[in-house]
Amino acid sequence: MPHFVVEYTDNIKDELNVRAMLVKVNQIIIAQHELFPIGGIRSRAIELQDYVMSDDQEDYAFVHASLTVGAGRNQQQIDKTCSEIFQMMKAHLAELFDQRYIALSMEFREFSEAGTYKHNNVHARFKNRG
Mind listing the pLDDT tens digit for each residue in 31-78? Predict the structure, then answer.
């Protein structure tokens, strides 16, 4: 169940190519050698129209991501996954970073399976896949 959520300011919508970034995130997660079930991967973006950043004196922009997974992975696995995603995000935003004021951040969260409710038939598609 890795869920990747990225928030971004609307002033970079045209340059960000957010869908391409989400596809890259999924590819990184899938490549983690069956650490995460493919059928549980969710990546999504939220465009922010109402925000204030810093002193509000420039056309600042930001991209903030969070990766949330269920418990059960060790710290080395989490660090590897997060590092690869963040490095990809930096590369994806490199041109924008050179052109304007922008802040990029990412956080990791782990939650307990207790209190979660799921109904998913996507896992079956990947169950017998090699």
Answer: 987 899 899 999 999 999 999 999 999 999 999 999 999 888 999 999
37 among known catalytic residues: no
| Dihedral angle of Cα 74, 111, 107, 95, to the nearest 10 degrees | 90
> Catalytic one among 1, 2, 76, 128?
2
- Supply the pTM of this predicted model: 0.90
If one counts the domains in the chain, the total is 1
Provide the b/e sequence for 41-60 (b: ≥16 CB within 10 Å). Answer: bebebeeeeeeebeeeeeeb
Q: What's 37's domain CATH number?
A: 3.30.429.10
User: What residues make up the domain containing 67?
Assistant: 3-126
Q: Is the pLDDT of residue 115 over 90?
A: no
